[in-house]
Amino acid sequence: MEADSVWHYQFRIIMLGDSTVGKSSLLKRYAEGVFLESTSQTVGVDFYVHFLEVKPGLCIKLQFWDTAGQERFRSVTRSYYRNSAGGVLMFDLTNRASFESIRKWHQEVMETIKPYHMVFVLVGHKSDLEAERKVGRKEAEKLASSLEAKYIETSAKTSQNVEEAFQILTSEIYEALKSGKMRPNEQWDGVKCKLPPDAQPKVQEEGRKKKCSC
Predict the structure, then answer these.
(1) 208 φ, ψ to 5°?
(2) For the chain, which residues make up each domain, given as ranges?
(3) pLDDT (tens digit per residue) in 90-124
(4) In the 8-state DSSP scheme, what is residue 22?
(5) CA–CA separation, 184 vs 121, rounded Å?
(6) Does the domain formed by 4-208 have CATH 3.40.50.300?
(7) Beta strands 86-92 and 9-16, pairing class
(8) Which is it for the CA torsion 73, 115, 99, 86, positive or negative?
(9) Using an 8 Å Cβ cutoff, are 195 and 203 in contact?
(10) Where are the transmembrane segments (predicted)?
(11) How does DSSP classify residue 178?
């Protein structure tokens, strides 16, 4: 979907995790369909856009903020937390330290976004390197559960679960909208909607009936 005018909702999503876990590689695979064996470290924040039909007739514009994992850029990346509807908490399955940093990333975001709500998905990346795995699936699933997030393992190199990871997060954000946990408003850029305010509750109600009027 090339035309920017076709979307109904825009969700801002922020990529979170230590440096070198593969945030940029995963986004490039998803948004551009390419895999780069080596990428330069993100300096500050990079931006990506992708369009996804979350259900027939309902197009979501996903606006990604790819944040730098290095501590020296943290003051820059923190400023983007508040205006994000979704967060990808990402670690490297072959790097135990990156997994142990996840709670720190989550806590930092939660302290910043109040009173707004954010939906998370926990992503264990580089699943193609099974022989070098340092984090077990059950352990990662337990952490995800404690953070009220879904868990999925991905590989930008093989494309394993790349689309699925972002589909899960997008669907969870949309469900949060339908349930009222999130609502578009002028003071918050996490979710934008092109539908008029009086039409939004109707769309949400029809969503519960698994219908779409878009």
Answers:
(1) -65, -25
(2) 4-208
(3) 999 999 999 999 999 999 999 988 888 999 999 99
(4) S
(5) 21
(6) yes
(7) parallel
(8) negative
(9) yes
(10) none
(11) H
